[in-house]
Amino acid sequence: MDPASIPYYPVNEFGPLMKGLVIGGVGILHVFLAQFAIGGGLLLYYFERIAQRGVKDARTFVDGYFKILVLVSFVIGALTGVAMWFTTIQVGARTIGLMVDEFHWLWATEWVWFAVEIVSGYAFYRFGPRLDDRTRRRLLLIYAGAAWMSLFWINGILSWQLTPGKWLEGAGMWAGFFNASFWPSLLFRTAVAATLGALVACVVINTMDLDRERKAALIRRASRFAAPMAVMPVLAFWFVAIIPADSRQWLMGGSMPMTMFVGVAAGASTLIGGYVVVGLIMKKLYINGATATLLLVLAFGATAAGEFVREGARKPYTVRGVLYSTSMTPDEVARLRTTGAVTGDPYPLRDEARFPTAQLRHGAKVHRALCDACHTLHGANALVELTRTWTDDQLRLNVAKLQRTKAFMPPFAGTAADVEALIQLLRWEAAGTPATWPVSDAPGTLAQIKTWLDEVGTAATPPEGGR
Ligand code: HEC
Q1: Is 155 in the pocket of ligand 1 (CB under 6 A)?
Q2: Which of 173, 176, 421, 467 would staple 363 via disulfide (CB 3.0–4.6 Å)?
């Protein structure tokens, strides 16, 4: 029962953005660049091979600025990768800590591949023009292979967060790594990487100083790389079929924002896929720079929407069944119901002087510990606005039975007094933060909240939403 045994980490606040959005934003940029660096690498290797077989202009393409784009993207990809670490330790220190503990050596392996990718990519960039054909081919193969391998390793760790499966029953690290969503997401991301490579290549080819015939010949080659788009619907259905039932329900209408993002991702991908497969590959149409850029922007939108859905589908967990988005384990939720949500939280509030009463300060700490991973008070997913029209008792009931209010929220991890402090904070904020505010501690109110907390229990809502 010792609340001090729960590790509290200093966490940051990001103003009107909620934490989930901050990590999501950095993540989307990183994923997009890193996936392009993989597809671009494969494409470079392919063009190098056909150049050595005598295909005209392919060498110009490889040594031109496509190479530079691939390198720039992997440099920015690497920097945003570091940014991910900096963000994640401020947003979910415990989650990333668990991931590092569990997959320590796999993560080290991923880093080795990453180092190989950097070294070979840079070596090609710096010395490529002076090397003989065989070395050039080898270097590009190593670059592309290493880039893909770093995806292979990171993909296992990320997909484990959503579908840890047998790992939960103690089946060990490899069972966690090769989890149910490992293959569909690896193949899906590989297809995306190839498509991004093809689209950027089409943009670049259009800038080359060649006549239209010769450009068209290169474009026909490059667009073959987007052919895997054709199997993406199958991979997407596979992914949706193996994710947990509750996550699937949200994607299929249970949560409108998520359903809409699924629609955006699927719609944009269908448009790109249709254009590439029917227009470029089957009908052998020419694509100009503007159209290729437009498709690339659509692909960015699809990536952003897809990552949002993947992250969202995991709620209320960061590691399914193990750690809630609030960085607490299910056992700890039960313990905090008696000890109080913030009894062991050693960190002061940033803006303590704002609050006229101790109860409001307490409420602010409860909000920080239990809600602000996914909500803000006034900005994104603003609690004050979501609840403004509710009566006090409606608010108390819905917060006490949080996992029933929406299944993608964790159970409330605190006492009746914690609930009431949070409710008072929300009401005080909704009233425009007046200078005085009454303390609310009527025994009847607290007893009623306690009854609700006991009724709903401390387990998350089961996947079928059953009782
Ligand atoms: C794992 C993320 C997560 C956590 C943690 C979380 N919420 Fe939510 N909550 C959501 C999402 C997502 C919604 C849906 C917003 C929407 O539908 O627009 C939501 C909706 C709500 C709503 C509106 C429900 C409705 O039916 O309109 C309330 C009230 C709410 N949350 C309160 C809280 C409180 C209080 C806490 C902290 C004790 C909390 N939430 C913690 C994700 C979370």
Answers
A1: no
A2: 421
300 shares a domain with 353: no
Least confident of 87-91, 163-167, 183-187, 437-441: 87-91
Does any ligand 1 atom lie closer than 6 A to the CB of residue 421? Answer: no
Look at the chain and report how many structural domains it folds into.
2
**Which SS3 state, helix, strand or coil, does residue 317 take?**
strand
**Does residue 294 sit in the same domain as residue 333?**
no
**Cβ atoms within 10 A of the Cβ of 354, count?**
11
How far from 439 is each of 11, 339, 426, 434, CA to CA, in Å?
28, 21, 13, 13
Three-state SS for 130-144 is HCCHHHHHHHHHHHH
**Cβ(403) to ligand 1 under 6 A?**
no
Among residues 221, 453, 444, 223, the alpha carbon closest in space to that of 337 is found at 453
Domain boundary among 291, 319, 347: 319
The helix, strand and coil proportions of the chain, stated in percent and rounded to the nearest 5, come to: 70, 0, 25
Considering the domain architecture, whether residues 399 and 295 belong to the same structural domain is answered as no
Nearest Cα neighbor of 312 from 24, 104, 98, 70 is: 24
Instruction: Identify whether residues 234 and 312 lie together within a single domain.
Output: yes
Contact (Cβ atoms closer than 8 angstroms) between residue 318 and residue 327: yes
Q: Does the C-beta of 375 come closer than 6 Å to ligand 1?
A: yes
- CATH number, domain of 137, equals 1.20.1630.10
Look at residue 152 and tell me if it is in a domain: yes
How many contiguous H segments (helices) and E segments (strands) does the chain have?
A: 20, 2
284 and 350 assigned to the same domain: no
Comparing CA positions, the residue from 376, 421, 436, 430 lying closest to residue 13 is 376
Indicate whether 285 and 382 sit together in one domain: no
Confidence (pTM):
0.89
Give the tens place of pLDDT for each residue, 338-374: 999 999 999 999 889 999 999 999 999 999 999 988 8
| Domain interval for residue 386 | 328-456
Ligand 1 neighbourhood includes 383 CB (under 6 angstroms): yes
Q: What is the C-alpha to C-alpha distance for residues 153 and 164, in angstroms, rounded to an integer?
A: 15
Is the Cβ–Cβ distance between 318 and 325 less than 8 Å? Answer: yes
Cβ-contact 194, 280 below 8 angstroms: no
Q: Which of 376, 386, 420 to mutate to test the pocket of ligand 1 (most atoms within 8 A of CB)?
A: 386
Is ligand 1 within 6 A of the CB of residue 326?
yes
Q: Dihedral angle at the C-alpha atoms of 264, 20, 194, 111, nearest 10 degrees? A: -170
Residue nearest to atom 26 of ligand 1 (CA): 405
- Asked if residues 292 and 201 have their Cβ atoms less than 8 Å apart, the reply is no
pLDDT digits (tens, 9 = 90+) for 191-204: 999 999 999 999 99
